[in-house]
Amino acid sequence: MQTSRSASFDDLKLRTVSGVALGLIALGLFWLGGYWSAALLALGAALMVWEMREMVIGAGRGSSLLGIIAMIAAAASVLITEATELRWGFLLVACVGLGLAMAEGPRGRWANIGLLYIALAMMCIDGLRTDDNYGFTAVIWLVTVVIAADVGGYFAGRVIGGPKLWPRVSPKKTWAGLLGGMALAVVVGMIFSAFTSNTFFWKVGLISALVALVSVGGDLLESSIKRHFGVKDSSTLLPGHGGLLDRFDGLAAAAIFASAITFARGQSIFIW
Predict the structure, then answer these.
(1) What is the pLDDT of residues 112-164, one digit of tens each?
(2) pLDDT, tens digit (0-9, with 9 covering 90-100), for 183-196
(3) 117/112 Cα distance (integer angstroms)
């Protein structure tokens, strides 16, 4: 019989295999950049909007006529961002979201807030990638730091355990996991900086810790939505991970945070 400790790692192999496969595909498309990476982000935005509507409004509603309109708007906003600027993509999805919110009930309005959030996150990643000098590197740094936060939190939470972070929303998350994830994000961010931009790596480490913290906040946000609507996983699209929202909830929040700092500073967030 397996011990509780070994049972807690049962899903690690499946998570790792599916994560690596998806990661390699994404890596190739983001290396190509342009409409290659924008198309991937557009597809992801559409599928996550579908998941959000399925969770919030009800099963089958993600594929309704209004759901299809929401998915098309999310995908189009990313492609418009790639072709022009982020503000025009956001204007499109905001107008569509407002129209859908007026046509649907209270749950529909919550789903369309999700539409804006998801589309904005994907547009922000596309905006980061369009930097001619550090676009690809910035996206890889962002993804790497979020993965480090997730991996560090996974192992620290299960090995150390201790008090729960927010048991009503996410019973498995612990304070040890949060600190472990932030610590690994700092180390990974500093090493990444040392081997790429080679600037003030301790500042990059600090920013990496903040990105990790925001990514955990994004994870908790999605968990609270699932808890409120009585859903375990956003979907079953990804083996071992649940749905796209389950896997990229932290990245979505981190992308918005990193983009806000990047656009405000006028240069990549990991360059100091």
Answers:
(1) 999 999 999 999 999 999 998 889 999 999 999 999 999 999 899 888 888 88
(2) 999 999 999 998 88
(3) 9
Per-residue pLDDT, 96: 95
The mean pLDDT of 25-51, rounded to a whole number, is 95
Q: Give the end-to-end CA distance of the chain in Å, rounded to a whole number.
A: 52
| Helix/strand/coil (H/E/C) assignment for every residue in the chain | CCCHHHHCCCCHHHHHHHHHHHHHHHHHHHHHCHHHHHHHHHHHHHHHHHHHHHHHCCCCHHHCHHHHHHHHHHHHHHHHHHHCCHHHHHHHHHHHHHHHHHHCCHHHHHHHHHHHHHHHHHHHHHHHHCCCCCHHHHHHHHHHHHHHHHHHHHHHHHHCCCCEEECCCEEEEEHHHHHHHHHHHHHHHHHHHHHCCCCCHHHHHHHHHHHHHHHHHHHHHHHHHHHHHCCCCCCCCECCCECHHHHHHHHHHHHHHHHHHHHHHCCCCCCC
As a whole number of angstroms, the longest Cα–Cα distance in the chain is 58
Q: What is the pLDDT of residues 63-108, one digit of tens each?
A: 688 999 999 999 999 999 999 999 999 999 999 999 998 888 777 8
Measuring CA to CA, which residue among 109, 131, 123, 136 is closest to residue 44?
Answer: 123
